[in-house]
Each structure stands twice: as C-alpha cells, then as structure tokens.
Amino acid sequence: MKPRHKRLAAIAFGLAALGIATALVLSAFEKNLVFFFTPTQVVANEAPQGRTFRIGGMVQTGSVKREGIEVRFVVTDTAKSIPVVYSGALPDLFREGKGVVAQGQLGADGVFRAREVLAKHDENYMPPEAAHAVEKAQKTLQLK
Amino acid sequence: MLEAADLRCERGGRVLFERLSFRLGAGEFLRVSGANGSGKTSLLRVLCGLLTPSRGSVRWKGEPVAALREEYARQLVYLGHAPAVKGDLTAEENLSIACTLAGVAASRDAVKSALARFALPDDVPVRRLSQGQRRRAALARLALSGGVPLWLLDEPFAALDAEGIERLGALLSGHAEKGGAIVFTTHQDPGFAATRTLELA
Amino acid sequence: MKWFWYASPQTFYPLAGRIARWSALGAAVLAVCGLYIGFFVAPTDAQQGEAYRIIFIHVPAAWMSMFIYVVMAVWSALCLALNTRLSGMMAAALAPTGALFTFIALWTGSLWGKPTWGTYWVWDARLTSELILLFLYLGFIALRASIDDPRRADRAAAVLAVVGVVNVPIIYYSVQWWNTLHQGASVSLTRAPSMAATMLTGMLVMALAFWLYAIAVSMVRVRCIIRERGE
Amino acid sequence: MLAAARCVVYRDLLLALRRRGDVAVALLFFVIVASLFPLGIGAEPNLLRSIAPGVIWVAALLSSMLSLGRLFAADYDDGTLEQMLLGAAPLGVVAAAKAFAHWLVAGLPLVAIAPLIALQYDLGAGLWGILALSLLVGTPVLSLLGAVGAALTLGLRGGGVLLSLLVLPLYVPVLIMGAGAVEMAAAGLGGGGQLLVLGAMLVLAAAFAPWAIAAALRISLE
User: By CA distance, what is C151's nearest residue in B?
Assistant: First the structure.
C-alpha cells in the first residue's frame, strides 16, 4: 500500500469506529441511563423496586402540606404524579410549581419516602417583574 | 545506501555532535569511535530512526527514514546496548520471536544452527547464562539476518571472548562482502579493518 | 508566512510581552465593569433572589475550563503533528490557568448549590465530569513536571491532552443527555438566551474579562518558559 | 502484520506463564481488596448487596492498574521495546497486541473470579452473568487506556504514582458504566443501556488507543 492509501484506510477505520460507537451510544440512550426517574417511569414500573433511587419532576401546585416535621407533597411531570413524604429541612428554592429531585425509596403504598430533597432550578434568569409578566401572559393564554 | 546529512543531536540540553555528514555504500564498514558519553549510541539511535535529530536528516536510498518507518525498519538490524533478550525465555525462543517481530522468516532448524554457530545451549532460560553468553544470544540474530542490508551494532564486541570476537568478525566481513552495509561503535580495536572511521569528540 | 515567523519562540517572545500587557489591562477594566454590572446593575432573580449572582463568576469560569482544555489539546495536537517548539510551550502555559478555572467553577458551583439545590455536591453527570477535567489538568501538569527533558515533556503531555479531550463534549452535553440536577445552558448558539439582558451583559463581560486574563497569564507564563529553556 | 501481533501476544503469555507468581499476585490483590470492605464497613447483608457492584469494579480497576507498571517497563529495561519499535509491523498493531495480552493476563481472570466475590457479597446468582459481562466488556478498555498511561510514564521517577494519577480519571467513565450496569440489573431494570455505552467505549478505545500508545512509546524511547 502507498502511504496515501494507508492514510485513507486509517481514516476510514477511525470513522467506522466512531460510527459504531455513536450507534451504540444512541441505542443506549433509549434505555435507562439516568440520574433521576420521572413519575411516569415510576408508575410504569421502570424505576428500581425496593431500592434507593431518585425521582425528579415539578412540585404540584397546592400539594405541599406540613404535618409537624413531616412535609407531604406531590411530584408530577404533568402526566403522572407521585406523593412524597419527607422529614427534614427543605432547600430555600423548594417551591410549588418548581423542579425538585428527591432521593429515597418507594413504599408499598405507592408513597415515596424521601431521605433527601434537592431543588432543581431551570436555566431561566429574570427579574421578578419580568417573571410576573411572563406568568400573567401565560395565564391569559390559558384563559383564552 | 545510507546517507546522513548535517546531523545535530542534543541530549539533556548538551550538544553531542553537530554538522555530522557521511554516506555509506554497499559493502562498507563504518566504525564509530569516541570516548564514553561522546554520543556513539545516540548516533546509532538517530541512524535507525529511534531518535529524531534536532537538525539534519537520515536518508535511506534517497528517502528520509522518518517517512519510511516500518519499511526502513525491515531493511535494518539494530542491536543496542541492552541485549534485548528475555531472561525467562530460552535462547531459541528469544531468537525466533525476535526474527518474527523483525519480519525475518526463520525456520526452527535455521534458528538452531544459528545458536550452534555461537555455541549456545537452546533449552536453558537465558537468565542462567553468563554475561558473554547473553551477548552471544543477542548477536545470534545476525546469523539469520543475511538478507537484511543494513546492520547497526552498538558495541558488538563488548563482553565477548577472543573466539566470539573472531566469529563475529567473520560474520561481519561476510555480510560486507555480500553487499551489506555495517555501522558499529566500539572503543576498542576490532581486529579488522573498517572502510571508514568516524571519531566523535 | 507571518504565522510561521511568529511560531519561533525568539520572535514570539516580544510579541507575547505586548499581548500580555494589553490583555492584562483589558481584563482588569472588564472585570471591574462586569462585577459592577453583576452586583449593582443586574436585577434580583425572580426564583433565586441574590444567590444567582454567583453565575457572573461560575459560568464564565466553567466555560473557560472547558475552552482552555480544547485550546490546549489543539496546541498539543500541533505539537505532535508538526513538532513545533512553541505549541508545546503554549499548552504548558495554559494548563495551570485551566486547572484554576476548573477549580473555581467547582468551588463556586458548590457554594451556589447549597442555597439553591440544598446540597454542596451531588454526583450527577456534569459535576462528575467537571471533576474529571480537573484531574486531567492535574495529570497533565504532573506528567510534565516529572519529565526532565523539556521536548519529551511537551510531547508526552500532548498525548495525554489529546486523549483527555473526549471528556469535554461529555461535560458540555451531559445536561442534555442525562437528567441531571444541574440546569441546562442559558446561552447557546441555537436559540435566544433565557436570561434578562442586563444579567446576560454582565455575564458576557465577565467571560471576556476571564478570556483576557487567561491570555495575559498564559503569555507571561510562556515567556517564562522560553527564558527558562534559554531560547 | 498479524504474524507480529500473534507473536507479541504469544510471547507475553509465555512470559506470564514463566512468571505465574506475578499474575497470581494481581488476582490475589483483587480478592483481598474486595474482601476488605465488609471488614471495614461491617457485614450488614443489605448494605453489602448495595455496594457490591461498585466495590467489585473498584477492586478490578485497581488490580488491573497494579499490573500496568510492568506492561512496558521490563521490555524497556532489556531493550526489547526498541526492537518492537524497529519491527516489521506498525507500532500501533504491536501496541494493541501488548494491551490485548495484558487483558488476557490481568483482565480475563478477574471476569472468572468475580462471581466468587459476588458470592461473598451475597449478590444474587442472577446478577453474576451481568457482572461478568460488564467486566468482560469493560476490562479491555482499562487495559487499553492504562497502556497509554504506562507508555507515557515509562522510565520516569515516581512512575507508579504518576501512572495512577494519569490513568484513574480516564477510568472513571468505565467504572460508572460498569458498576451502573450491575446496579440497574439488581434494581430489576436490566443494565442494557450501560453495557451498550461500555461497548461504545471499547470500540473507541480499541480503535484509537493503539495510536496513542504508539505515539507515547515513540516519545518515551527517544
């Protein structure tokens, strides 16, 4: 083989390897490779049974109830929702309607017993006035 | 065949040699001599392509060796300072593996006769052999490398007895007569005439 | 042709000095402006209150940590392919700054994580891969430090830098590929930034300041390396 | 080209056979490290079951790294490595063969004895398969990446510690995916996703690491 052919063969070989690897990774993403599970996955029994795992979603508006040191709330991904019990301090950014990730175990009664609750905020940053305006606009849209 | 042009070599910030040029044709010997630390080994390593010179180039049949790589490697035998034999393997295993790696076809019989030529036992791990015998085990490769044109040998005569030196001398002369080219380093008199001597200061 | 002329350390040396001076000046001015915008002009965030203001340091530092690694890998690839002296020196000069920015990104990130997420550290994909990046920088520096011959050090570290560059896209895309606790990117090329204009300005000014700082420091460092090797 | 690769593998296996002790030490190290955790953490079965995949993978990773130092060092000392550089086959092929031989000696036995450790950790027999499979796909990646580090640190002072500093960060993704596969399987979800990612890593490492090893060897031998 001439050096030029060799180089071409090497490049083709490298590209083929990249292609195979990409295909493998893409098909892997159709399976479970996650930091947390969504309520839909939990309801569909795609989350671990009898083990510690994380669920993530939104705190349903109006679902937070405090009973002594215990806090009950519902995590939802708008399609399905999971009730959660947690006792301990909540992070400052824990709000209704905002993102949350909770680590714990799913009880037999379908209630998720969280040992740790973390707030997940989104990538939007805006002053309060703008946030109000956005909320208002969304509400008017919903009303229409 | 082998051509060195304006070579310069630095090791650890010290210039070992510079403006070194020579040509070596078929059937020629080049003896490189010089004090310890004068760069004999470095020159050989530059010639075989293990070391990149900081200036200048080495050419084989007109082509720079850096571009030829394995094709150049197939045309040469380099025997370095370290014997390149494995203590846990027998001389026979060592030799046949070395030949396979170098791309030299060597049958079992050829390997055995090469070892016999250097009076080496073929079924003892090299670890149990003496220093001089280990040296011979490395040199035995030359007996199978008749078809390889360029031999680069680093201190081939070191640790050999009178008989071994004679045998090696005969092998080298034979190779040169068949049109091979040889570069070897030594700080002692080899006992036979080299075509050319290169003195490194 | 001019490029090759500047590729020699001797001719690059005075140029590096000039670049270093001007970049340092620019970095100082922009950092003052950026911090002023960040802490006095930019409004409070609707969700996070004042805590979000750490993005003016965290985000530019995280960008730089990845970007410097890529630049370092490019110089390293040049060093391996063309065997030019300056490229190895440039890679060497960038590494400590990259490691510093990685450390700042991790440190400010954990300070930000406590008030917002409720934890200093979680092992999610982005945090873990950023930590690996820090280790890669440290490995690069350690490998260089343990090789005496500078040319060999350049080339050996270059191999490591090129091998490690796989990690950078993993960090950058981790928040899209996995459900991480870390939020997605606020600024990207494909869509409008999801932050208020003054906040964005502050962040971009700070990013520019970090850029100039990185350039200034690496130029000073490359001058030291050139002098050290007596070129 | 293939003859040279076969020859390198044959030679390294022969050497390993003549020095069985070294191979046994690495295996013993694996078993001992894995056995230390129950002693240090306490033998609570549920806890052990949940840390088992991670512990076994970490032990495998450390034991595979332990034998990396020898991968090129002996050949470097006695001059054989120079001869490989000057061999008839491209250096990348030789490098791949060396890494493959390292895996046969240091990786494959781990796959075989991992179920034994799994037994100690009370990991269900149904998980042995996926544990062995994840090690089977993952340990070659360790050998390939490790060989890059071993080639870079050849002949350096403090090479052993430096080697671990260079190699361990590169090992992290393999560890995460390998242990993750077993963990997901233990949770009843099947570790297929992680195994596929491990497979992708193997393909990438097998295709590109030999080039990096070859480049590193050339640099280290200058």
Answer: B12
